[in-house]
Amino acid sequence: MIKIVKFSILFFICLFSMEFTRGQLKDIGAILSGARSDADKLIPAYLKPYASAFGADLSSGWYNTAKPHKLLGFDLTLSVSAALVPSSDKTFNVTSLKLSGITTNNSQSGPPYFSPTVASSSSGSNTSISYPSALGSNFPLAKFSLPGGTGLGVVPAPVLQLGIGLVKGTEIDFRYMPDLSFEKDLSVQLWGLGLKHSIKQWIPGISMAPFFHLSVFLGYTQFKTDVNINYQPSDLKSAIVVDTVNITPSLYSNQQLQLLVNNFTGNIVASFDLPVVTFYGGVGLCYTTTTLKVNGKYPGAGIQDGAVVVSDNYSVTNPINASMTSTSGGATKPRLNLGVKFTMAVITFHVDYTKANYNVFTAGLGISFR
To answer: Nearest Cα to 31, choosing from 252, 319, 250?
Structure first.
């Protein structure tokens, strides 16, 4: 059973990330060859949709009823939430970033210039950034095209969750995903903690209402992913046609992009729990913070003996450690959720839809003992 769950989780994670890890990360390495201040702006702007989508996913799938378990009752549920990236976040305005490099675009007549984000269906970008050296524009220190999109505007996140009933109409929920790796290119971790408490019992007039339940829910989830990058001095040399000197290949063997997403959500949840079917909904707020790190050493170019060369002397180490909260929808966002659950003996199946800054569809299958 555990092997099946692990496989399911890896399948959904890799579904959206496989193309990203094998194509776009090489382009992200190229961005690091330019000005570090520009990379701090370009990479978060490019990755914003996935950071936002993960935040939306992590605030979903927490509940399928407002009715807490009785003491030591429990459920074990595997659910998948899929956030939809809006069209407005499938491109970003490069001009508004005020880069130090020279921005050009061979398909747009003039600024502002727009480029695909990671969620775009455009496989390439017509926007290029260059950094001329003192030797002139024909001898740049760095020059690269911005990456295209993966074509995946739907971002799934599977979650395995355990709920256990406590006293006084209270339930505690645990989310967990062990450190899972895929072909040494990608690893993911997830854990979360939630608390549901019945407020129906404290409200005169509805405390004895049959089938109807009303609760408050609070939840926190943390998601971490590490993705390997492989951008070597030879890649930079071929991009700007210069010599390579004093290179130690082993220095560039531990390159990694790390994304850490923290999500908080609070909701008022109501449900009508009938013998076979449950109708439920919630209204609340969610808040997401995202930290982006790019670790390792990356090649750089400089002027040596009157020529532009790629050398260890110009490399950069751990170039990015930035909060993406301001660019990834980190401000507090309202959310409205509606769903239905079907119960057959101890087997449950539920689907719901969440209206938020990133809309989310969720489906889950579980076992429940009240």
So the answer is: 319
